[in-house]
């Protein structure tokens, strides 16, 4: 049986009449890297701040390592937090920033030195210990901010969009370092981001949030391949999943002249479905050129816009009146106005109920 490091039960948070979190339940496993993902205003940072004790909840309970911490102060919860802003003391050296909290806790000097030494080795910042934050790059400052949480030797680390202030290359580099850090420490880590690349690459599981609720909690692969609703399907992926409105009858999805056999589709409920439906297919799952022989069906489209992107080429078109995008090889010779044959593989499509927006 999987042990939980953090348990959240029936959590509510309101600011006046505005409900930010609503009856939210969440179990976070021991040693798990869980990412809270969603657009601005979805409640992900608010949830993290509730776990941290920085916000007073309206209702529900929060447990960390089996202890009810709902009304405890942040320093009594056994957590370390890394914020979007580095929040370093500019007048102190890196060593001083790392040891400041431990000195305030009246920890013995030898233990402080040992913890600072260990954290600096793990984060590879030993040469920076005698510098002040003003002499560090953004990436180095964020490492120090992570180190300040690391020296506390806590069970749960909380990260609130720690990489959002960095440029693209530094974000990619620090993503790798965070993943290695988690594998090395095996502590529970809860990470807030609006960046789906960060979520997909870092997470053991992702909780996708909208309007203070969790829309889907699953592994990155499951969320990508089997989104539970239209919101998740459209949120994950760049560019987003294509959607085509139509109807299912006799194990065939039709939309205008488009006819797609769905007899082998993996229905969530286990049974076939007749009636209105929305077919979803990701741009990277559309088959072209030499991949067409493996397609379960094909259609012809005209390229409206072509975007060369190096490794691949993104083609914009329409299919039965619906905007439609697909990827081709980066070396594909295609231009606006070209007619292209595309195909689908039924193992890579999704079907949704247009009323409930849930996956069929």
From TrEMBL:
<dbReference type="InterPro" id="IPR015855">
    <property type="entry name" value="ABC_transpr_MalK-like"/>
</dbReference>
<keyword id="KW-0067">ATP-binding</keyword>
<dbReference type="Pfam" id="PF17912">
    <property type="entry name" value="OB_MalK"/>
</dbReference>
<dbReference type="InterPro" id="IPR003439">
    <property type="entry name" value="ABC_transporter-like_ATP-bd"/>
</dbReference>
<dbReference type="GO" id="GO:0005524">
    <property type="term" value="F:ATP binding"/>
</dbReference>
<dbReference type="GO" id="GO:0140359">
    <property type="term" value="F:ABC-type transporter activity"/>
</dbReference>
<protein>
    <submittedName>
        <fullName>ABC transporter ATP-binding protein</fullName>
    </submittedName>
</protein>
<comment type="similarity">
    <text>Belongs to the ABC transporter superfamily.</text>
</comment>
<keyword id="KW-0547">Nucleotide-binding</keyword>
<dbReference type="InterPro" id="IPR027417">
    <property type="entry name" value="P-loop_NTPase"/>
</dbReference>
<dbReference type="InterPro" id="IPR012340">
    <property type="entry name" value="NA-bd_OB-fold"/>
</dbReference>
<dbReference type="GO" id="GO:0055052">
    <property type="term" value="C:ATP-binding cassette (ABC) transporter complex, substrate-binding subunit-containing"/>
</dbReference>
<dbReference type="GO" id="GO:0016887">
    <property type="term" value="F:ATP hydrolysis activity"/>
</dbReference>
<dbReference type="InterPro" id="IPR008995">
    <property type="entry name" value="Mo/tungstate-bd_C_term_dom"/>
</dbReference>
<dbReference type="InterPro" id="IPR003593">
    <property type="entry name" value="AAA+_ATPase"/>
</dbReference>
<dbReference type="InterPro" id="IPR017871">
    <property type="entry name" value="ABC_transporter-like_CS"/>
</dbReference>
<feature type="domain" description="ABC transporter">
    <location>
        <begin position="6"/>
        <end position="236"/>
    </location>
</feature>
<dbReference type="GO" id="GO:0008643">
    <property type="term" value="P:carbohydrate transport"/>
</dbReference>
<keyword id="KW-0813">Transport</keyword>
<dbReference type="InterPro" id="IPR040582">
    <property type="entry name" value="OB_MalK-like"/>
</dbReference>
<dbReference type="Pfam" id="PF00005">
    <property type="entry name" value="ABC_tran"/>
</dbReference>
<dbReference type="InterPro" id="IPR047641">
    <property type="entry name" value="ABC_transpr_MalK/UgpC-like"/>
</dbReference>
